[in-house]
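Pasting as-is:
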Amino acid sequence: QVQLVESGGGLVQAGGSLRLSCAASGRTFSVYVMGWFRQAPGKEREFVAAVRWSGGSLTAYGDSVKGRFTISKDNAKNTLYLQMNSLKPEDTAVYFCAADRTVALRPSLRSDEYDYWGQGTQVTVSS
């Protein structure tokens, strides 16, 4: 019983920035990790970043975005963020917010291990 709603997507030029937000509601106290995934047409869903939601703030990033994207959270506001800088055309995708209830040593990089998903927000980067 966790609801996730993404916002902040849009159209930007290469080299630009966007900040995505994910508003969580419901039983957020049951969440262990919150993460971002993305999916482009014809491609598999790809891990972007994740952060420990409870019990710490350990983060993880996909290799393709490390150094450019930053995941952050505001637990008091039940909101997850993804700051995306130095955007490239290959970043174009639908970006999904996801929540994982499973307690583990590290955030999961597998989309099928997450329990709740938002509807997605489109990010398009033009060259």
